[in-house]
């Protein structure tokens, strides 16, 4: 059984989280510049193996597309071309950044670390992945 990898796509940075090989634990992996995300995913897949992808789909409070939705769909199309045999699941990502910030505060993370947007991005990807794992039970 391979890993599940989650993506919190952003125009500048992309947060990435991954499960363990048994798909029990969701863990923050990294935050990469978005223009390097596909290359990062290819290298990670070659070394660790990925079975499927989960990507956060941005929607507004009325469940309508946001300014970022088109960019995420374009990224999904590119991901499908690079990984044609892998499933790609879309998960509602509303409030993940807010939840990530709350989790960092509750976990006692220093203020300087909470201000680093890359920490929010990879923790948001972890929340997206955890949500997927809980919905697949």
TrEMBL record:
Name of the protein in question: Putative pre-16S rRNA nuclease
Keyword Zinc: no
Record's keyword terms, sorted: Cytoplasm, Hydrolase, Nuclease, Ribosome biogenesis
Keyword match Zinc-finger: no
Organism: Reichenbachiella agarivorans
Pfam families referenced in this protein's UniProt entry, alphabetically: RuvX
Similarity section: Belongs to the YqgF HJR family.
NCBIfam families: RNAse_H_YqgF
């Amino acid at each position: 059984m391979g890993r599940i990898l989650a993506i919190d796509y952003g125009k500048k940075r992309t947060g990435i989280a991954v499960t363990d090989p048994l798909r029990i634990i969701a863990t923050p992996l990294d935050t990469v510049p978005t223009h390097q995300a596909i290359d990062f995913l290819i290298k990670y897949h070659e070394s660790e193996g990925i079975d499927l992808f989960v990507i956060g789909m941005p929607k507004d409070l009325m469940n309508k597309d946001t300014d970022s939705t088109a960019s995420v769909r374009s990224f999904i199309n590119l991901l499908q071309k690079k990984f044609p045999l892998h499933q790609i699941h879309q998960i509602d990502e509303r409030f993940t950044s807010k939840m990530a910030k709350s989790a960092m505060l509750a976990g006692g993370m220093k203020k300087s670390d909470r201000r680093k947007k890359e920490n929010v991005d990879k923790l948001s990807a972890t929340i997206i992945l955890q949500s997927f794992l809980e919905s697949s039970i």
